[in-house]
Design a protein that fits this description.
CATH topology of the largest domain: Rossmann fold
Largest sheet: 6 strands, parallel
Number of domains: 2
CATH architecture of the largest domain: 3-Layer(aba) Sandwich
Structural class: alpha/beta
CATH superfamily of the largest domain: Response regulator
Number of helices: 10
Amino acid sequence: MVPHPREELFSVLVVDDHPLLREAIAARLRSMGAGTVYEAASVAEARARAQANGPCDLAILDLGLPDGSGLDLVTELRSLGWNRLVVLASSDDPYAVRSAFQAGAQAYLLKSASAAVVTDGVKRVLDGGVYADPTVAPLLATGTRVPGTDNTPRELSAREVEVLQLVADGQSNKEIGEALSLSALTVKSHLSRIGRKLGTGDRAQMVALAMRAGVIR
């Protein structure tokens, strides 16, 4: 289990070519409970850190690095067992946001984000969830078609999208039922249908698929 930042120390890699921003992020993470903070200013340095130290509990990566693609680095780290990757970028372009999630990121934060937003995003990812900066989240909600395991689009009903959004918000079946005036059994049935459409019964994977497709924020 990944340590919760408010309870135990966690390790993190911060990749950004701007020293002041990198140091500010590192300081914020230490205030949240990060015990070990590695820093890198380029793709090459990040690869060296990853090779020397193995996967950290979390990585925060800039997309605009001087010696290569931050998206490629996300994909590379993901393949090496880094399961919690946060992208920190300047662009709020929907294509860039979707590309980051498709590459394997669990969160997309803007460099202009407030300290509170950064903290919320990091906590969500450390808890196994996904997160999109509130500024870009509305740009992703362009439809309700989600690719299944065979990449065939599957239609989610409006109610299923509502349920999935509340799952993404960290609510339990009971809490979802209370919010939508449904029984816990009905909520479970909705989740079962969503799972069949998306090809997974894992709540985190369902949320990640829906977020990457732009169905939920």
